Each structure stands twice: as C-alpha cells, then as structure tokens.
C-alpha cells in the first residue's frame, strides 16, 4: 500500500497491486486524482520534499510506502500553448501527456479552436481523456460555438462521443447556426452516434436557425438509416421548418429518391404545403428530378396514399408544371402532362426553404 498525504490534510491509500504494471508515478497520480476528485495535471507527488518525475517507476524510486501530494496552479504560457497544440495536431499522445504533466493549461486554442475540439475532430480518445483529466472545459466551443462533442459526432468518432457524454458534455448545446451534435450526426449519416445521442436525451425536434431538424438534415443528405432511427424515436415526419419546408421537401429538392420513398412510406404528407403554398412536387419539378416527380405523382400506385396533386397551384398562381417549363425541364413537363397537369399561363414564383 502507498499512503499519499498533503491535500487538505487527507491521507489516501493506494493499492499498488491494483495499478497497471509497471507502476509509475503517473499511475499513482491518476488513482489519487480519482479518489480525491481533483485534476491529475498540476498534481505533484513528492518524496522527501523532492518532486517526482511523472514517468518514473515506483520500483526505481525504491517502492516508497509514503508520498506527499500538492496541487499546483496551471502555469502555461504562449510557447507551451503552441507545444501542446502541435502535439495534438501530430497526434503525439506521449508529448501531450508530458506537456500537461508540467502544468500546461488545457483550454488553450489555435485560432479560436480549443485544443479539446481539435483532438475530438481528429478522433483521439486518449488525448481527449488527458485534456479532460487536466480540467479542459468539455462544453467550450470554437469561434463558431462548435463544441468537442459536436466535432466528434460530426466526424464519427464514437469513442470520443461516449467519453465526452460520460464527462458531462451538454448534449443539446448549439453552435452559432443552432445545430446540435445530433443534427451534425444526422447530417453526416452517423447512425450509431444518432442512436447514442438520442439515448443521452438529445432533443430530436430541436431546430437550427433555419428551422431544420435532424430529420430534415438526414432527409436532405439521403441517410435512410438515420431517418429510420429518428422516426423510431418519434421524430415528427411532417414537421415544417423555415418557410414551411418539411423533410419530404428537403429530400425532393436534393434528389434523394430513397429518402423520399422512405418518408412517404412513413406517412409523410405528399401534398403538404410550405409557406408559399408549394409542395415537394414543386421542388422536384423545378430541379428536374424525373424519378422523384414520378414517385410523388404515382405514390398512390405503390403506397397507401394518394399521389401528388399535379394541378395544385401555389399562392402566386404557379404550378409544378409552370416551374418545370420555366426551368426547361422537358422530361418533367412530359411526366406532369401525362399525369393530367394542364398547360397554363401563370405567374412565376419560386420557393424558399
């Protein structure tokens, strides 16, 4: 057993037999920090008033039975900040550990991006752990308010996401555009992380500043597995965002055929209108997405819903056919006229998300 004293007069007993072999000063410090609930970095262990090297082995010190501990304030400077940042960028775990053990501040940043965010984007779970152990702020954002959790979710680093959530990262924190970690994960098609974030009570209906939900983001990117996950968690398939756009409209505009099919099968309203009275058909027609136009028009043929109304006009008096004509979408014009759309003279009028 190793007795460690000095922090607020407390004496902590460490069972050396339970530590990783070879037993090092770093391993002892980790156990002390865990028991006393303090940061490992800035924590110094002393033997006979001599500060012990972090990477020394317990055996090389003569296997002492008693050590003293002191907590030192962080004393980093710009030069050391740069050393830490470069070590993280080079994914040099040992250098990161060494620099932090010298008392370097863990919240330094590169052009406004905290080093924890950098490590999270690069998918470095051990480095992220070192930084958090050194009291890095898990909810500190970069110049765009994007946090370490958002970056890890965006780039698909499951181990980092799990660790940050366990360490208290705020799951519903937003970046400057209102996007959360869940919205980033949905947008990038990270199905497993979408599951994990929902389990961590991420708000599935939370919207960006453009009023886009995770479901809309997944629909626009064509990630059907993510759509399935979100709908299973009871995301509203017919929720309307900015200017009244729905997930089906996002899929139609981005030519995401499979996503549109999946949403229709999941009871998306084929003739749901946006703020200008336009439907998903209008978006698909103007963009020239022939397969999607056919899917929307003939939805009733393979699904338990009626097909899109090809004669529908928006509040400007324009129809899907009018938009297709104006955009020079010849094949779409043929599809719509074959489905019963009438040639007309109407005013133009485009839509917005």
Structural overview:
The protein has 353 residues and is α+β, with helices and mostly antiparallel strands. The chain is built from 18 helices and 7 strands. A 5-stranded mixed beta sheet has the order 2-1-5-3-4, covered by helices on one side. Strands 6-7 form a two-stranded antiparallel sheet. The protein is elongated, with a radius of gyration of 28 Å. Mean pLDDT is 87; it is low at 345-349.
Compact summary:
The chain has helices at 25-36, 78-89, 93-101, 115-122, 125-133, 148-154, 158-166, 181-187, 191-199, 214-221, 224-232, 247-253, 257-265, 280-287, 290-297, 299-302, 320-326, 330-338, and strands at residues 2-5, 11-14, 43-47, 50-51, 66-71, 109-110, 113-114.
Proportion of beta-strand residues: 5-15%
Number of strands: 7
- Count of alpha/pi helices: 18
What value does the average pLDDT take?
A: 87
Mind describing the biggest β-sheet?
5 strands, mixed
Radius of gyration (CA) equals 28 Å
Strand order of the largest sheet: 2-1-5-3-4
Unreliable stretches (pLDDT < 50, length at least 5) are: 345-349
Helix and strand content put the structural class at: alpha+beta
What global shape is seen?
elongated
CA-CA gap between termini: 66 Å
The H/E string reads EEHEEEHHEEHHHHHHHHHHHHHHH
Helix content: 40-55%
GO molecular function, one term: ubiquitin-protein transferase activity
Keywords: ANK repeat, Repeat
ANK repeats: 111-143, 144-176, 177-209, 276-308, 316-348
Pfam family, one: Ank_2
Index terms:
353 residues, alpha+beta, two-stranded antiparallel ribbon
């Amino acid at each position: 057993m190793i007795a460690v004293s000095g922090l607020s007069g407390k004496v902590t007993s460490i069972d050396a037999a339970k530590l990783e072999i070879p037993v090092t000063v770093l391993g002892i410090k980790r156990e002390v920090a865990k028991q006393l609930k303090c940061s490992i970095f800035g924590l110094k262990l002393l033997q006979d008033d001599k500060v012990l090297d972090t990477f020394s082995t317990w055996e090389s010190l003569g296997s002492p039975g008693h050590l003293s501990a002191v907590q030192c304030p962080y004393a980093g400077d710009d030069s050391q900040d740069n050393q830490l940042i470069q070590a993280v960028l080079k994914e040099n775990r040992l250098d990161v550990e060494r620099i932090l053990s010298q008392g370097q501040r863990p919240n330094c940043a590169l052009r406004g991006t905290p080093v924890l965010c950098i490590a999270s984007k690069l998918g470095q779970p051990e480095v992220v752990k070192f930084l958090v152990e050194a009291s890095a702020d898990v909810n500190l954002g970069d110049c765009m308010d994007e946090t370490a959790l958002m970056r890890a979710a965006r780039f698909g680093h499951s181990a980092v996401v799990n660790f940050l959530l366990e360490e208290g990262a705020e799951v519903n924190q937003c970046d400057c555009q209102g996007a959360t970690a869940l919205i980033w994960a949905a947008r990038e098609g990270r199905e497993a992380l979408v599951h994990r974030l929902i389990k961590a009570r991420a708000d599935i209906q939370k919207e960006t500043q453009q009023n886009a939900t995770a479901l809309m983001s997944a629909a626009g990117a064509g990630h059907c597995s993510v759509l399935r996950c979100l709908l299973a968690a009871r995301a509203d398939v017919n929720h309307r965002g900015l200017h009244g756009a729905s997930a089906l409209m996002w899929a139609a505009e981005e030519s995401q055929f499979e996503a549109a099919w999946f949403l229709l099968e999941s009871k998306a309203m084929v003739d749901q209108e946006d703020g200008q009275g336009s439907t998903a058909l209008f978006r698909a027609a103007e963009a020239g997405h022939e397969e999607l136009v056919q899917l929307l028009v003939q939805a009733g043929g393979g699904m338990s819903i009626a097909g899109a109304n090809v004669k529908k006009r928006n509040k400007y008096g324009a129809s899907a056919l009018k938009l297709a004509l104006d955009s020079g979408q010849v094949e779409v014009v043929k599809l719509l006229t074959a489905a019963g759309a009438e040639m007309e003279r109407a005013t133009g009028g485009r839509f917005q998300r």
